[in-house]
C-alpha cells in the first residue's frame, strides 16, 4: 500500500540555510538521521496521521529540535496546530495549507507558490489512493479533488508515495473521473445483488480484475462508496 515506500520531502529556497521537512515517515532510525543531516530544520509538517507518514515524527523532533505541526492534535509536538488556510513562511518559502479531507479526515496538502503541491495520500504518484472509511469520507474526497483540480496548470505533484507528477490539476481530474466511474460500478453491483450487498460482495464484482492482495484496501473504499450512496441517493 506504500508503493515504493513513503516519500519524505525536504523543502528550502535555494539561498536558505534551514529547511522544512514534510512527513518524516516511519520510525526508521537510519532514515530519520539521514533526513536530519539536511538540517537545520525549522518545522516538521504532517500531511496526515497514518503511521507510514508520522510514526517517526517524535524521534525526528528529538533529533532536530523542531516542532511537529499537524491537523490532528494527537500528532502535534509543540504549541501550534495546522489547518487549511494557514500560510507557513519558513526556509525562504511561502507554504500554503489546503484542507483536503477524504483519504482521512485530517489530510492536508501543502502548496508552494505555483510550482508544486505536496499531496500526501490524497493524490499518489502511481495508481489511486483509498478512502479510509469511516475516518475518510467520499463526499469530502470529491470536494478535495475539485480544489486540487483548480490549481494553476503546471503545478507539480510531490506525493506521499510514488514518483512526482507534472500537473496536479490533470491528476485530480483523472482521479475524479476514476472515482465517479467506480461509484457507478458499485451502484450497478448493488442493484445486481438485489439492492442489498456487503462490501466484500461488491469488491468481488467491481474489483474482479484487481490483484486479490489489494482487495482489503479496496474494501475500505467500497465501504466509503456505499455510505456515499446511502447519503447522496
TrEMBL record:
This protein's record includes keyword DNA damage: no
Record-linked InterPro entries: LACTB2_WH, Metallo-B-lactamas, RibonucZ/Hydroxyglut_hydro, Sec-metab_biosynth-thioest, WH-like_DNA-bd_sf
Signal peptide positions (record): none
Residues in Metallo-beta-lactamase domain copies: 5-161
Residues spanning the membrane: none
One Pfam short name: WHD_BLACT
GO molecular function, one term: hydrolase activity
Domain of life per record: Bacteria
Keywords: Hydrolase
Stated name of the protein: MBL fold metallo-hydrolase
Source organism per UniProt: Lentzea tibetensis
